[in-house]
Design brief:
- This protein is of the alpha/beta class.
- It contains 13 helices and 13 strands.
- The strands form two sheets. Strands 3-2-1-4-5-6-7 form a seven-stranded parallel beta sheet, with helices on both faces. Strands 10-9-8-11-12-13 form a six-stranded parallel beta sheet, sandwiched between helices.
- GO terms for molecular function: glycosyltransferase activity.
Length: 353
């Protein structure tokens, strides 16, 4: 099969980019011809090594740029002889839809960021992939029929991005609590800071590590600097591969207010952390509905603190949840994601006949 992926760029530190790159590499490994058309970025060398072609299509939203990109997408679909196009962002779907119509081939879209209003544009797809059951239900409420939706839960284990990665744990003071992600309000970091202040007051040896960057990083640093636990919090910034931090951590926390299906949870589980996540969007599904990780309500620092204290104060309980993080972990492989996605393609191609 000739599969053309369309997304805005291939730069690091964006979850949808990681998911698309992982999928393209896995599809190529399964013997398919794969191309990624985008504005390019950090992963282009990896894609080339994996036999994946790349092409440049601008995703600027200015009228003249959009017109040019529409023409570029149409020409690429025809000249590369794609069997289908897989669009990963809203602008990508808009650019791909007329090209697919003219070529008579299916458009498959993936809803990575369901919380954005423009996600409804992913309904342009012949088939629409939701990255969790929660996202599927949300998109149905927004008018996309269940007949066109398919759920393919995110997973990263075995990703080509991780080949040759070091598994030597980062040395962290124990008990260690780790967050990895963007510094955005929807990630709920102020809740974690408030919860950690409660934990640290009772267990002064506890340490909190924050890996990642984003527009609120300076504000969060300032917020923590005024807290009594400030000396126990480390802002490590962005890391090219945070797996070593996960491998060195006792507890991984994701206090999100909204998170369709965060890839970081499969990495934290693979690293063997005890995991705490909030009961929003795809997080419960990625934690086996509480079997593989502790679930707490979002926006509730007191409940989060209780869960953390239980693990910090009870080494046996901490080990129990480390072990439980491995529950059904084989379901989080990129090979499974690739094969399920190919099943969606087959359904789209059959519909188009």
């Amino acid at each position: 099969m000739r599969i053309l992926h369309l997304l805005n760029h291939t730069r690091r530190l964006n979850g949808h980019v990681h998911a698309a790159v992982d999928l393209a590499c896995a599809q190529s490994a399964l013997g398919h011809d794969v191309m990624i058309a985008s504005e390019g970025g950090d992963f282009d060398d990896l894609l080339a090594r994996k036999g994946i072609e790349t092409s440049v299509i601008s995703h600027q939203r200015k009228p003249l740029a959009v017109a040019r990109s529409l023409n570029a997408a149409r020409r690429l679909v025809r000249s590369w002889r794609a069997d289908l196009v897989h669009a990963h962002m809203m602008t990508s779907a808009v650019l791909a839809w007329p090209a697919c119509k003219l070529a008579g081939i299916p458009l498959v879209t993936t809803v990575h960021n369901e919380f954005e209003r423009s996600a409804i544009l992913m309904g342009l797809g012949t088939r629409v992939i939701a990255v969790s059951e929660a996202v599927s239900q949300s998109m149905q409420k927004r008018g996309i029929s269940a007949a066109r939706l398919r759920v393919v839960l995110n997973g990263t284990i075995g990703s080509a991005r991780f080949e040759g990665r070091s598994r030597v744990p980062q040395e962290l003071a124990s008990p260690s609590i780790l967050f990895v992600g963007g510094q955005h309000p929807r990630k709920g970091l102020p809740d974690l800071f408030e919860a950690f202040a409660i934990v640290h007051a009772r267990h002064p040896a506890a340490r909190l590590y924050i890996v990642g960057e984003g527009p609120y990083l300076d504000a969060y640093r300032e917020m923590v600097s005024k807290m009594d636990c400030a000396d126990a919090v480390t802002f490590a910034g962005a890391q090219e591969d945070p797996f070593q931090w996960m491998a060195g951590a006792d507890i991984f926390v994701l206090p999100s207010h909204a998170d369709p299906a965060p890839l970081v949870l499969s990495e934290a589980r693979e690293a063997g952390c005890a995991v705490i996540g909030t009961t929003v969007d795809g997080i419960p599904q990625l934690l086996e509905q509480g079997e593989a990780g502790i679930l707490v309500p979002a926006k509730d620092p007191a409940r989060l603190a209780d869960a953390l204290i239980d693990l910090v104060a009870k080494p046996a309980h901490l080990q129990l949840w480390r072990d439980r993080s491995q529950t059904n972990i084989g379901h989080l492989t990129i090979e499974r994601v690739a094969r399920e996605t190919l099943d969606v393609y087959a359904s789209a191609l059959t519909k188009g006949r």
